[in-house]
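[Backbone geometry]
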Amino acid sequence: MKITEAQLKAVTALAGPKRYSHFIKVVADQALLWGLYADGWALAATGEGQQVFPFWPGREYAQLCATGPWTEYQPEEIDLDDFLQELLPDLKEKNIAIGVFYTPTDKGIIPAFEELENDLRNELSRIEE
């Protein structure tokens, strides 16, 4: 799904919790999400130094954040099933937090692993009804 410039501006201007809700709906609907990749995935950190793996609901949103230390990174799609079954448990085991929908000016939301998984699975079941 191509995201227009107007959508890009409107959605990235939303507060973190509203971007989180948008992320859940779009990711469940499209069954994919995006990270930034260049010889490894882009990682951020919390103020306390915990590693954070940022994710976006669309290529264009991820591309907006490919600046500064991530200039060489490119958006890379991740299948939702692979995320839920493999990547999410791996990140939890390694204690790497999930960063939902960073923007160039906001770090986004860092949900608990269980919260993110439950929200995605609930949205998926709602769509399948």
Q: What stands out?
A: Strands lie at 32-37, 44-45, 51-55, 74-79, 97-100. Residues 113-128 form the longest helix (16 residues). The first strand starts at residue 32 and ends at 37.
